[in-house]
Amino acid sequence: MKFITTILIFLFFKEIYTATFSEALLNLRKLESYIKQYKDEKKSKVSLNHLILSYIREGKYKGTAWTLAAGSPPSDLEAYIKALDTEKNTNAASCRGYGEIVLPSKEKMDFVHLFATMNGIDHSNSFTDGFSALVGWGGDVAQLAQDLKKFNGTLDQLLVEANKLLGVKGQFGEGDLISDLDAPIILEKKKDNNTFANIIEEYYKGDEWKSRVPKFVKLTFPTVTDKTQLRQVVFDRYNKDGYIQILECQYGIRVAGRILGCYSPHAVIAQYKNHQKAAVYAFADYLKKRL
User: Fold this and answer.
1) CA-based end-to-end distance of the chain
2) How many CB atoms are located within 10 Å of the residue 221 CB?
3) Mind listing the pLDDT tens digit for each residue in 123-142?
4) pLDDT at res. 16
5) Strand pairing partners for 17?
6) Amino acid 8: pLDDT
7) Strand pairing of 100-102 and 108-110?
8) pLDDT at 168
9) Which phi and psi angles does 50 have, rounded to 5°?
10) What is the DSSP string of 149-172?
11) Distance between CA atoms of residues 255 and 262, nearest Å
12) Among 187, 41, 18, which residue's Cα sits nearest to residue 111?
């Protein structure tokens, strides 16, 4: 496990804006053009993807842990966007404050969570390593396990409760689930000659979102060749991820190390082993049913 200074995910909430899908796309297009203008004017060597993703993510997810997991935008970018919004009477900056947006499919997607997950994957430069699991599906599965701590029972009984929560309510609701699944797909489609706004519009207005699960599994769990392997593959990936282990320790699911505390966590606490498995299996079963 790589040594890190902190891993607890801090949430930094500013004003949350309500927007329709069309409004979100309109402001995202404007934002992307402003950030492209910033990059050209400043002759910035930072990738355009990172500038866009980190700027939007920092509207709701900010702090030392997020800087470690996903980097930071330039310190003057926020003021730059604000000045252009004022000058041109636009609202591009509102993109970093959106909550759940209703998609053309009638599903709900957490807009900023989508960009935060893409930011972490992009910063890790990998769909399968680094912080890619923690900032997306893995971190949310850990939150699901935390939600399950209020229940007692066998693995099968806890799995019933996990299925009631996953994609429905609690900390791993529909908005987060859709964002986690779609983030690697949308990021993988991003090319220098296209925009996130165009990709998102085409993805959700067309039929491509209907095959999100097979595409997500291919990108995130490339070793899976048969859907019967999903439970084990997802569990192994989750259980061995050092960053997720630290988050589980913060949630009281793992034992803290004697010297470094949750920065060197030990095994899952016995009474929560079934809670952990139930959360992981519920997510794996969700994927399996849609392959």
Assistant:
1) 32
2) 18
3) 999 999 999 999 999 999 99
4) 60
5) 98
6) 47
7) antiparallel
8) 87
9) -65, -40
10) TT--S-HHHHHHHHHHHTTTSTTS
11) 8
12) 18
118's tokens: 């893409």
DSSP bridge partners of 255: none
Cα gap 142→164, rounded to integer Å: 16
> In the predicted model, what is the mean pLDDT of the chain?
93
> Residue ranges of the domains in the chain?
21-289
Are the beta carbons of 204 and 210 closer than 8 angstroms? no
Please tell me whether residue 133 adopts helix, strand or coil conformation.
coil
Kindly report, residue by residue over 12-38, the tens digit of the pLDDT. Answer: 445 566 789 999 999 999 999 999 999
Smallest CA-to-CA distance from 103 within 169, 181, 214, 46 is with 181
Q: Which long-range contacts (CB under 8 A, 24 or more apart) does 37-43 make?
A: 37/84, 38/77, 38/80, 38/81, 42/74
The residues with which 254 forms a beta bridge, in sequence order, are 268
The DSSP code sequence of 15-34 is: PPBP--HHHHHHHHHHHHHH
- To which H or E segment does residue 100 belong? strand 100-102
- Residue 221: C-alpha distances to residues 74, 129, 197 (Å): 33, 11, 27
* Cα(101)–Cα(17) distance, integer angstroms: 10
- Residue appearing with tokens 């971190």: 139
Helix (H, G, I), strand (E, B) or coil at 247: helix
Closest CA to 216 of 239, 195, 236, 234: 234
Q: Residue type at 165?
A: L
3-state secondary structure 194-217: CCHHHHHHHHHHCCHHHHHHHHHH
Angle (CA) 57-50-262 rounded to 5° is 60
Backbone φ and ψ of 76, nearest 5°: -100, 0
Is pLDDT above 60 for 207? yes
Calpha distance 63→7 (Å, rounded)? 10
Say if residues 279 and 37 touch (Cβ distance below 8 Å). Answer: no
Q: What is the largest CA-CA distance in the chain?
A: 60
Distances in whole angstroms, Cα of residue 45 to Cα of each of 38, 116, 236? 11, 21, 37
